[in-house]
Amino acid sequence: MAKNTHDVIVIGAGHNGLTAASYMAKAGLDVVVLEKNEWIGGAAVSRELYPGWKYSNCSYVCSLLRPEIMRDLELYKYGLQIIPYEGSATMMRNGDYYAHYHDHDMTINSIRRHSHKDAEAYERYSRDVLRQCKIIKPLLKMTPPDLTSFKPKDLFGALEFAKHFAAKDELGGLGEKEIYDTIRFYTMSIRDYLDEYFESDITKAHLAGSAIIGTALGPCSPGSAYVLLHHYMGEVDGSVGAWGYSRGGMGSITKAMTGCLNAHGGEVKPDNEVVNVITKNGRAIGVATKKGDEYYAKKIVSNLDVKRTFLKITEESSLPGEFVERVKNFKIRGSSGKLNIALDGLPEFPCIPEGDPGGGGDMHFTETIEEMEGAYDDWKRGEWSRNPYVDMCIPSKSDPTMAAPGKHYMSVFIQYVPFNLANGGWNEERKQEFGRHIVDCIAEFSPNFKDLINHYEVRTPLELDNEVGLTEGNIFQGELTMDQLMFNRPVPGYAQYRTPLKNMYMCSSSTHPGGGVMGAPGANAAREVLIDMNIPQKGNYY
Amino acid sequence: MNRDLRFTALKKTPFHSRTSLASRTNKYYNWNGFTVPTEYSTTELEYTAARNGTSVMDLTPMCKYMINGSDANKFVDYLVTRDLSQMEDNTVAYIIWCNEDGKVMDDGTIFKFSNTKFMLCCAVKIYNWLHDSAEGFDVSFEDATDTTAALAIQGPTSCSTLKNYGADDLELLKPFGMKQYNINGYDVLISRTGFTGDLGYELWTDPANAENMWDSIMEAGKELKIRPFGMHALEMTRIEAGFIQTNTDFMAAEDSLRPVRMRSPYEIGMGWLVHLNKESYFVGKRALKKEKETGNSERCLVGLDIDGDKPAVGSVIYNEKKEDIGIVTAAMWSPTMKRNVALASLKRPYGIKIKENIFAEIYHPEELEYKKIWAKCKVVKRQFFSPERRNKVPADLYE
């Protein structure tokens, strides 16, 4: 049995674990990251499962990763390049399509084909959403204040939080009306929200997609509007709400982070699954791995979701009962699946005219919000959606490193897919049946699609749980609903990245500001660790 | 409509039929008397092509001069500050040249075919200056600007694109090397040069070949993320690469109305191109030698890494006492590095001896009001971005 001592142990080499580790290593700490898989990256990976094709196996597009983090960790030096999307489109069964473009006015022209009124409403809608994005942006980097505490830090924090909602100058003059709007936005369903702006089904269906991706809410569920905001608050170089590909797949992000970590003396140890947090007198002092090694450190930071951290690798007896109860009640429901497809050529989608940049990014075929809600109804019954909402894209159209010239990689994200499949649960046969069903759905819109398939990987919430370690396969490591956001994330009283165990911290997407390949939880957690160790923090993020 | 053809507003390049067809935005500008696109679709995507795939830019408006004659070698060495006496045939060199006062007239690239044949490429017209300087040399000049069509093919997949086009073994060409090809029945000179700081090439050919070359290259790069690329995107890549632009980062000596605006090579970060130990005399040598010896250069051109994400376009630079110490000449948010960078002309010792506690006053427009930002700057290497692939031999191929 080997014994190892470090300043900090990070459990899990996902993007947040690596972000936290890199910031701490940059601050001079000796950091080791223990990863259960043989590969690095958690849900931001690029793996070659079929020779010649790279897949972004889990997460597939990038927008939320904070630019300050990319800058501080100098990720470009270690190979990270973000490629902006050209546009997006929803295909229609009547052969028509709806498209969104990089250029605002082209989008307006496109919407106008479906509704003149909607085209102009879109100006108002995008202004209102952008305003909400501006309000939320500074909050992402903040450690949520504890509203029940009278510590100066929390009082100031609460004030700071409130300031961003209320202060006129900071936000360019937000008034009472906008604050009401914020609260409405955080609690409404996306259907109700969009109904206030738009009349055409296709416009609403296209825009509503962002509100259901990754969540176990339907478009009619209260709180789904926030999920849309969560997907919009990112940016690609100042273009708020824009999305892009990570060159070389999402694994390039975690690879670059590992590069930064290594350059500052840190290390990732793959194939080292942590099975137990070692505690002594209410303090976390180390971890034990499946291989039987023990690692000791001054600080332990878990990048596993809150359920895995406290219900699987920490002794329940070392934690307060109420805390454990809260963790058990944390909503983390899997609702998504994925297909990664190696294609021998570019599939044709006759709905989208050749050369239209709308076909350059995400493509969909859900035409109404009702269809979307119907897809959700199937999930509630424990079935995969018969008529699913898909977010499919062909990164190799923009990225020359995913497949050989002329060959293509297609990523298909599917909503909704249950973790607990009705009538006996998931098995290999049903997984393949699900995969075939999705292929059939896509083939309805692409006559040559099936002929081009060389190989595909099917991912259900079960794989995301077993392989990646996302409980129930929830991609956000916990639902993004008001009851578990900000100072309530992951559980009230523990929103500041600290845990009931002294010297143990959380940095996963289960913490504020939540999921998506954002890095903010990791950077925020690193800041708290550094504060507790009295180490000054440097960089653009802090 | 019949136009009187004696009046021509702006010239069209031999690629115009193709560039205008590729333009989705119809945005053009006047470059050296030619009308060429500033932007084809969106600058962000065009910029991305140069860092991710292949970007194609019509370079024809660049000034191009053929220098021929038995003294061509000697003349070129006399004209420029750099020692070119050891320059090999079929290579290219980056150069600057000065007037007798040692003030920079322009920068450019010189292509050496042999001791008796060169091509000079630059931004500012120099035909007259060449003649004025040529007294006593057996050389002749030909302005090849209108008679040579040129394309820049830049980006990580550019070598593969050009191989598909017919440039065999191009991956073996070294940076600043050049090679003559015959492709589709036309002579095409390919040099491994460019203004993006990335892997890239420039192609020089007969205007009669322009349309064929454009079409063939677009076809060759179809699966390699090829995209035409306008001036705005070029500006972004050249700032990241730390390349200077005449009359943007410094005033060309011949164009400066105010003599105090003229700059010596030492004042624009080009001291490395001045070879005072070159045996023969070169234009400006006396003045430059004196400047070097007395160390009385007044300015410097440096790279700045600026806090925040608002580009410091046109910002005045201050010291901590709020004294004006210089100006930003070019600024941008770098999409690749996620850094806020700028080139700035500073009054020495700022930028040379004093590199900290420098601030940019940024006026960020916000819906008809300016937000004044006082941003901390750090003096850094001007070459912000220089990926490994830029100088790799053999060049990266995508197959």
Describe the structure.
The complex is a heterodimer of chains A (542) and B (399). Helix content of chain A is 35%, strand content 19%. Chain A is built from 17 helices and 20 strands. In chain B, strand 6 and strand 7 form a beta hairpin. Chain B is of the alpha+beta class and 399 residues long. The mean pLDDT of chain B is 96. Helix content of chain B is 18%, strand content 33%. In chain B, the strands form 4 sheets. In chain B, strands 11-12-13-10-4-14 form a 6-stranded mixed sheet. A 6-stranded antiparallel beta barrel of chain B has the order 15-18-17-16-19-20. A 5-stranded antiparallel sheet of chain B has the order 6-7-8-5-9, with helices on one face. Chain B is globular. The chains are: A alpha/beta (542), B alpha+beta (399). Chains A and B meet through helix 2 and strand 5 of A and helix 2 of B.
